[in-house]
Design brief:
Elements lengths: L8 E7 L12 H7 L3 E7 L12 E4 L9 H10 L3 E2 L2 H7 L4 H7 L7 E4 L7 H7 L5 E6 L9 E4 L3 H16 L4 E5 L3 H4 L2 E7 L2 E8 L17 E4 L3 H17 L13 E6 L6 E6 L13 H15 L10
Parallel strand pairs: 1-2, 1-3, 3-4
Antiparallel strand pairs: 5-8, 6-7, 6-8, 9-10, 9-12, 10-11, 12-13
């Protein structure tokens, strides 16, 4: 069953210049929205000719260049009426320091050590901040996917030396650096991603390990998702993480309505799944992997238009 806003509603699907026609996974959304009496235009976020005020809803999709233009993107997001997900969510989610807030709240997350540029680490200081055993990953706190990430072996002298250089280069470029324990479950089971529309679980998928190389720490394979049947424990873990975000993101509260779309990436780990990331900006939703998932996504966006602005989504820029 579809839900329709007032006739003549207009929606913008926002992408980047490298994908001016949307990612192929999102292309069927245009027809699904048309079936709900919503006209959708595909627009590039940093196109200066676009008048965003004429749209009833502006939806972030494949804006995959935002990490390299963070300040410009955040400024743009704060200026757009009726952006989803909204600017306060974008600001909170763009920097992975939110994982520390999840951990402080008692939620299971991937073990992370933070290296801040202002700390002035020398090579020995970096060496002492790395794990003493097992594999670990280094990546910037502001990045998309495996961008800027490398996998290293703690007990291999050459690998450790490469890790020091990697962290040093990121810090010198002004990045906060994450040092994360590499969880072997990623190799044995893969990562899983759960998609929610307005807080309701839609579908899940899994992918194999992205960082594949020890000989080449920056080697990674192309993300290939497959359908996955999430367990009750995995769905509950994802819902707990989203509930925390709903209550703690500045400008939101537990009384605010759930986000139109959200993706939670988990690693299965015994009985307690571990949160790897919350993807609330422009996650790949892979609706083709969930039965009727594209219809649910379109319903969520049409309902968002019909409900009007959420008073809890306050822009604090």
């Amino acid at each position: 069953m579809t839900t329709s806003p007032d006739a003549g509603a207009r929606l913008a699907l926002v992408t980047c210049s490298a994908l001016p026609d949307l990612h192929p996974e999102d292309a069927p959304l245009i027809e699904a929205l048309a079936e709900r009496e919503v006209s959708a235009d595909v627009l590039v976020w940093d196109d200066p000719e676009v008048d965003w005020s004429v749209y009833d809803l502006v939806v972030l999709r494949s804006v995959w260049d935002y990490t390299s233009q963070r300040k410009k993107f955040l400024s743009w997001a704060g200026s757009v009426p009726r952006l989803v997900n909204p600017p306060n969510v974008v600001r909170w989610n763009i920097d992975k320091h939110y994982l520390q807030a999840l951990e402080d709240h008692g939620l299971p997350v991937v073990q992370t050590t933070w290296l801040e540029p202002e700390a002035g680490y020398d090579k020995r200081g970096l060496h002492n901040r790395f794990p003493a055993r097992e594999d670990f990953v280094i990546k910037p706190a502001v990045a998309a996917g495996s961008e800027g990430a490398g996998r290293y072996t703690a007990t291999d002298a050459n690998s450790r030396r490469y890790a020091i250089e990697h962290a040093k280069n990121l810090i010198e470029a002004g990045h906060s650096v994450m040092v994360q324990r590499y969880m072997p479950e990623v190799d044995s089971h893969g990562e899983i991603a759960l998609v929610f529309f307005h807080g309701t679980f839609s579908h899940a998928m899994r992918k194999d390990a992205m960082l594949t190389g020890i000989d080449d720490p920056n080697a990674f394979q192309v993300e290939e998702m497959e359908a996955y049947k999430a367990t009750h424990a995995e769905i509950e873990a994802a819902q707990r993480a989203l509930a925390f975000a709903r209550a703690r993101i500045p400008g939101r509260s537990i009384s605010s309505r759930p986000l139109p779309y959200a993706r939670v990436d988990l690693i299965p780990s015994g009985r307690t799944p571990v949160v790897m990331e919350l993807e609330l900006i422009d996650p790949a939703l892979h609706c083709s992997l969930g039965r009727d998932a594209m219809a649910r996504f379109a319903d969520s966006l049409a309902a968002e238009i019909r409900m009007g602005p959420d008073s809890n989504n306050i822009d604090l820029a």
